[in-house]
Amino acid sequence: MDRAARRRIGNSIFVVLCGIATLIALAFLALILWTLLTRGVGGIDAKIFTMDQPPPGSPGGLRNAIVGSIIMCALGMAIALVVGILAGTWLAEYGAGTRYGAVIRFLNDVLISAPSILIGLFVYELLVAPFHGFSALAGGVALAFLATPIVVRTTEDILSLQPGALREAGMALGASRAFVIRTIIWKSARTGLLTAGLLGFARISGETAPLLFTSLGNLNNNYSQLTQPMASLPTTIFQFALSAYDDWQRLAWVGALLIAVAVLTINIVGRALARETRP
Amino acid sequence: MASTALEAPRGAPPGHATGEIIFRSACLAAATLLMAALAGVIVSLFIGGLPAFRQFGFGFLTSTTWNPVTEVYGAAGPIAGTLVTAFLSLAIALPLALGVSVFLVEFCPARISRPIAIAVELLAGIPSIVYGMWGLFVLAPWFAAHVQLPIAMHATPGGWVDKLFAGTPNGANIFTASLILAIMILPYMAAVFRELFMTVPPQVREAAYGLGCTPFEVIRAVVIPYVRRGMIGVVMLGLGRALGETMAVTFIIGNAHGFPHSLFDSGSTIASTVANEFAEATSDMHTSALIALGFVLFVITFVVLAIARLLLREEKH
User: Fold this and answer.
1) How distant is the Cα of A59 from the closest Cα of chain B, in angstroms?
2) Residues A199, A219: Cα–Cα separation, whole Å
3) Helix (H), strand (E) at residue B67
4) Taking the model in full, what pTM does it have?
5) In this complex, is the C-beta atom of A14 within 8 Å of any C-beta atom belonging to chain B?
């Protein structure tokens, strides 16, 4: 066989192997989504949204877990948006090119991939152990620590894309930088900032590990007390899936489906918005 | 971007400079808070784990006894489980992720390349607890029936196959945990690889094609060398993910404390041990030992992630 033929064959083998890798990856992912749909859809009925989680053997739903998740995610996002947008603004507008800015950006990148269970342990030491009790508040703070780095990174990216002419125009009129950033740059980047929030939200809405030691979980309904343990969808799924009861396991599949659908939807909306904002 | 400080023009309204200072300080404070968060994690884990480190000394890292009843804690089992599952999952995911990203960037028709890339990226965001449930209820039973049992039945007792693959045939073991981890980090690594490959300038590629290279040769001799440092960065990022992944592993690793003796032995990782026991730990020493485990995990992942980020950051220019 001559050299050219050998090279051609080697190339074909490589192309086929790459294609097979792609098929394997897609097959696994399709398999997981298929399992979620087949085991989860059948269990969805009105009770899921109107009844609290039941003791084994009796009918019930996931209302308290869903509401608890929404409350703690909202709390986490409220903190993450304020801190994240301000910090991202500093990195893009004031700290760009400075040494301190480079350090913060690096640490933020490390925080993005830091294991969430460690953030949970940290918040346990910070808010649970000193006050002798698991609480929804601690859960929200743990989620805030996870969402903030993502908001920071996206905010910085989006603000850096805003044209310098906008800043120059504002400052030429005698406005301060802070005024230009608040009234012109943020406004021109508002869809991007919304994206930053959505990506952070998508990250935390399925988080389980940090909630296990901060908000714990709660069979009862106590939305009003942020200083008490609170149920959340992921911790309920964890508890129900590992239980020995069939009806609890069925509810866990419904919960897993709800979370997966929520995360995928938020991600898709976030990405669609992000594409729109790129100039 | 202009970064020179702008002084308030003469005759500007009062409060103009003050507002600037307040806003700027608020932004700086928020940025500094990120640093404080990371410092807070490491300090609090160290302080929390101190009693266990004091009590067991270096033996905490080398002893394989983990016994809450007698209050003796040694972390060698979970540490070994963490490292073995992380590297095994990397070994499975790396060739697949490379294949997927090369296929998407080089060979796939543009019309279907984009949807597949988006699908892969979306799946990287699916919560780990969902992967965990699938692993426990679908993968583990299948694995036990179609892989573990046949191997156990055909292996000569005492032979190397028997030793390497020994274990209760219930599908919850080190190997299936690594498989689930591999499935989880695969879409993530493929997405970053793809981004990296797209930074290679088309001229470089076209020059190689102009010399008569096949696509395989272009990738091997031009594309991969061009982004080599970044590729090591992606591998380290994937490793960092696999090391710290919690829920999926907790579902499927079998949660045995001892040192794993074979691939199909049940075991534990640092993250799974903490997730399983933390809320139920009753003694102070038990809690402290678990936090000390967290500290060990933090040190390992921090080093891995820091190297990954440094390599990837340099690659972007």
Assistant:
1) 22
2) 30
3) strand B66-67
4) 0.90
5) yes
